[in-house]
Amino acid sequence: MIYFLMTVCFFSTAVSAMAFVSFGTSSFPRPQCTVADSSLYQLMPFPMGASVGISRMKNNARYTEVVRKEFNSITAENAMKFRALHPAENTYQWADADFLVDFAQKNGKRLHGHTLNWYQYLPAWVNNFSGDSIAWENMLKDHIQTVVTHFKGKVTSWDVVNEYFNDDGTIRPSVWVKNLGPDYIARCFQYAHEADPAALLFYNDYGHEYSSAKRTAIGKLINSFKERKIPIHGIGMQFHMTYTLTDANISAAIDFAAATGLKVHISELDVRVNNNKVQGLTFTDAMAAQQADRYRQVVKTYNAIPKSQQFGITTWNVGDADSWVPSWQGAPDYPLPFDANYLRKPAYKAIIEGGK
What is the CATH number of the domain that holds 79? Predict the structure, then answer.
């Protein structure tokens, strides 16, 4: 299959991801298009982002160049999580996150912080913390405010709390709920706002696209925050989805988020194609087309919400080889708009089409 973004195209066996727009899925010569302005974010009507890993940023020049060229928003994949920043009770490690801040500032990228509070990726000292509720409260507040203050004026926005709800809409058990009660989530937002009143604060979760119960619970939480004047500015929908997800499910999730009146961030987008976890699966043209269709539909639906609410779309990492999905599901997958060599897949073209 041949895909065209522009009309000036030719075939070559020498493929450069940086010099040409390339679409395709096989190892055969691929169509390449020279374009004067081929940056994804410059072709889109809202910010386009990717989460990034610090090791790849430091050691993979092609990865870094794609991030620099294609996106105007970046999210710290792991470098700003609790365990990465605060590995011991009296120790903070800033080097990796500061590296990302420096990259963002030098290259004019918006930086989204992920995440101030999560039930996972905690250091051992937190899981083993034995203080009373006051000690737990002080520890949580100190962590949030130390981190937000460190990045004040450098990080535009934060996922304050990540994945507070189960799929059935109940509150997820965690060390935070156990030791601080369910309303600790509201205090997380208050502490972050106190540390940086200019930062935009998001609640982030997965499952919006398949669980109406979770959507309902998130809606109730947001309404409660509004009534109590708890600072919250946006809702993050992860959208780790499969190529079989229906248009109706996509619309239900995005329309719900827009109805909150908050800014809407599709925050961790990827589209899986190996639903059956087939070992040794090869990415085919048919899979590429189905995947591209889902990317197109997500972007098209998102682009229809009010512009003032469009915080942007962020893919969860850059190329297929960088994705968390194969490790998580124990089978190969190809969920991102760039392949393992950072060549643009049909999904890339579909994103642009959806944004028109």
Answer: 3.20.20.80
